[in-house]
């Protein structure tokens, strides 16, 4: 009995040991499999997760490159500024820290509320920017009293600045935060918070100016706090851009134009095509609209009927008026319509079809050859030769002189204007061309539209005896001047006439001549309001001061010096009256200034 009982007890113990052993074996197998799964099968996955949890990659933003004028004067740069930050964990009470700060600078209730609300949404060790670009007086107060300001820290940063304010505004543009479309650009995709160029050369040269981002790897704990820096590659500052503009000429020209409401002046070096000046008014101060724009100022720009954001030198379109007569004259000489001995009689108007086409001089100029017609700007002479030329031949020659063209100067918002032809009108309006429209085009009116840069290029080509001048805006960029003798003989005649315009009695710009240096040119008056026959014949109408928006545009194109053309100019003053009384005197003053710079 005892033997049987003992045997049964031993069997029970053995069974328990077996199940215990089996349980242990299963447990170890499960743990082993889990370890195998973690270390072998899913090792890559968990290594990646581990790295993400422990290593953060921070982008170090590069400093933007500077922009300089031809004399190495800095016109766009970066200014060291100081911002104010709050770190919540460094103060026992955010409210008390802000109270202390309010002793040194004003803090509105709304501002305070935003700071406190934001502090509740972020980790306590993260920084909150509470003020930026502190003035020196405030900075000194805070630095001196920092022991009274727990959790408040000064951090150095940089901001874009334009030292010359409105002088280069249209040319440079400005910088701001990228929009959704900008984020797809290859040079910004990794730095979505980096300010980028918006308009002008700041935009065109973004890839050059932005520089190269740096990076640093930091180890962080599970809460995101940085424990240590593992590696660092510093950012590389953007490259500088040097433009052909002469800041001295640019500033002087802008100040000349500021006597008027709107207009443009362009100056080109005829020898190499470099643009020395390209101003447009009204202008704006880009310092007031970068980063966080002054809303009141920005709205004033948008609401201004004169459109200060428009770069008139390349976007403004104007009927060239009598400045276009030189192109028509070259065409007439080239196609044998006239020669230097040909004469037309001007009695103040001509009849064509069922209409009269009037000269600006109501009593007429009398007998005119090509020299006198350009010198005194006789409309009737050009009605006659335009009628014989036809619009298509005028258009062909006009395009050879840069009109209707855009140029490789890194501004993609150029307005090409209109050099009309029969084909153009058919495509645009599905209408036939009328002969009377050719007469109007012959004096630079009607459909003909040009911008100030095109007029300066046209003048450069004439001054260089027909060589095609391609304007450039970047210094040291290789320039190709296309040598061309196609219109050489015709241009010699026109240049002689342009000299007479400025330097002979009865020339429309005679009052603007310079004694110390001779220049040549052509005035233009672009009509913006149609004048009825009764108004034209009314003495009171001619004497009456017209409302500004109804006044003619004033234009002048020219080159200096006459014996060795080096500088070409185009001046457009919107609603400035006549080219002789308004635009030509501005050109005279600017030519005089440029001459003084050289002596």
What share of residues are in beta strands?
Answer: 15-25%
Count of beta strands: 19
> Helical region count?
22
Q: What CATH architecture of the largest domain would you give?
A: 3-Layer(aba) Sandwich
What's the shape? Answer: elongated
Query: CATH homologous superfamily name of the largest domain?
Result: DD-peptidase/beta-lactamase superfamily
Any idea of the CATH topology of the largest domain?
A: Beta-lactamase
The quaternary structure here is single chain
Structural domains: how many? 3
Indicate the percent of residues in helices.
25-40%
Q: Could you name the ranges where pLDDT drops below 50 across 5 or more consecutive residues?
A: none
Q: How far apart, in Å, are the first and last alpha carbons? A: 137 Å
CATH class membership of the largest domain: Alpha Beta
Provide the structure class. Answer: alpha+beta
Radius of gyration equals 37 Å
What are the salient characteristics of this protein?
alpha+beta, 5-stranded mixed sheet, 599 residues, Beta-lactamase, single chain, Penicillin-binding protein 2a (Domain 2), 19 strands, 5-stranded antiparallel sheet
Walk me through what this model shows.
It is a single chain. This protein has 599 residues and is of the alpha+beta class. The chain has 3 domains: 40 residues; 83 residues, Alpha-Beta Complex (Penicillin-binding protein 2a (Domain 2)); 352 residues, 3-Layer(aba) Sandwich (Beta-lactamase). 38% of the residues lie in helices and 18% in strands. It contains 22 helices and 19 strands. Strand 8 and strand 9 form a beta hairpin. Helix 12 packs across helix 14 and helix 12 packs across helix 15. The longest helix is centred in the N-terminal third of the chain and has 40 residues. The radius of gyration is 37 Å and the shape is elongated. The model has no long low-confidence stretch (mean pLDDT 88).
């Amino acid at each position: 009995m005892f033997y049987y009982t003992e045997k049964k007890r031993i069997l029970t113990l053995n069974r328990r040991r077996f199940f215990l052993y089996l349980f242990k074996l299963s447990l170890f197998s499960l743990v082993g499999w889990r370890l195998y799964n973690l270390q072998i099968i899913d090792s890559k996955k968990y290594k990646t997760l581990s790295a993400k949890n422990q290593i953060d990659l921070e982008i170090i933003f590069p400093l933007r490159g500077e922009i300089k004028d031809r004399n190495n004067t800095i016109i766009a740069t970066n200014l060291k500024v100081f911002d104010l930050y709050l770190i919540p964990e460094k103060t026992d009470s955010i409210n008390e820290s802000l109270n202390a700060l309010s002793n040194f600078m004003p803090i509105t209730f709304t501002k305070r509320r935003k700071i406190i609300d934001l502090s509740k949404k972020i980790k306590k060790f993260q920084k909150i920017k509470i003020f930026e670009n502190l003035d020196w007086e405030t900075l000194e107060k805070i630095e001196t009293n920092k022991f009274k300001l727990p959790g408040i820290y000064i951090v150095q940063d940089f901001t874009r600045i334009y030292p010359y304010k409105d002088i280069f505004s249209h040319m440079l543009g400005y910088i701001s935060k990228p929009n959704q479309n900008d984020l797809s650009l290859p040079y910004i995709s990794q730095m979505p918070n980096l300010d980028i160029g918006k308009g002008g050369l700041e935009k065109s040269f973004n890839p050059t100016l932005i520089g190269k981002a740096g990076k640093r790897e930091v180890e962080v704990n599970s809460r995101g706090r940085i424990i240590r820096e593992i590696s660092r590659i510093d950012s590389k500052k953007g490259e500088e851009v040097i433009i052909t503009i002469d800041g001295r000429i640019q500033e002087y020209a802008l100040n000349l134009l500021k006597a008027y409401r709107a207009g443009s002046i362009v100056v080109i070096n005829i020898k190499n095509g470099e643009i020395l000046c390209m101003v447009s008014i009204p202008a704006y101060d880009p310092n007031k609209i970068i980063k966080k724009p002054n809303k009141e100022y920005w709205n004033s720009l948008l609401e201004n009927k004169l459109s200060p954001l428009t770069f008139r030198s390349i976007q403004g379109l104007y009927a060239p008026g009598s400045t276009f007569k030189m192109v028509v004259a070259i065409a007439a000489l080239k196609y044998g319509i006239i020669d230097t001995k040909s004469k037309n009689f001007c009695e103040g108007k001509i009849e064509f079809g069922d209409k009269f086409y009037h000269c600006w001089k109501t009593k007429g100029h009398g007998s005119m050859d090509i020299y006198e017609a350009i010198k005194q700007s006789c409309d009737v002479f050009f009605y006659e030769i335009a009628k014989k030329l036809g619009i298509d031949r005028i258009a062909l020659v006009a395009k050879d002189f840069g009109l209707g063209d855009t140029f490789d100067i890194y501004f993609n918002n150029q307005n090409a204007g209109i050099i009309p032809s029969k084909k153009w009108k058919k495509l645009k309006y599905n209408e036939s061309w009328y002969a009377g429209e050719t007469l109007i085009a012959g004096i630079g009116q009607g459909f003909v539209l040009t911008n100030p840069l095109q007029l300066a290029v046209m003048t450069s080509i004439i001054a260089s005896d027909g060589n095609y001048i391609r304007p450039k805006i970047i210094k040291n960029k290789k320039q190709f001047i296309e040598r061309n003798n196609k219109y050489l003989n015709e241009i010699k005649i026109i240049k002689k006439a342009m000299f007479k315009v400025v330097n002979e009695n009865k020339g429309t710009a005679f009052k603007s001549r310079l004694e110390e240096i001779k220049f040549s040119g052509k005035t233009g008056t672009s009509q913006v309001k149609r004048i009825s026959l009764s108004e034209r014949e009314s003495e009171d109408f001619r004497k009456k001061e017209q409302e500004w928006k109804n006044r003619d545009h004033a234009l002048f194109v020219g080159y200096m010096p006459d014996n060795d053309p080096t500088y070409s100019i185009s001046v457009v003053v919107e609603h400035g009256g006549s080219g002789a009384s308004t635009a030509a005197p501005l050109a005279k003053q600017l030519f005089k200034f440029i001459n003084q710079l050289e002596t």
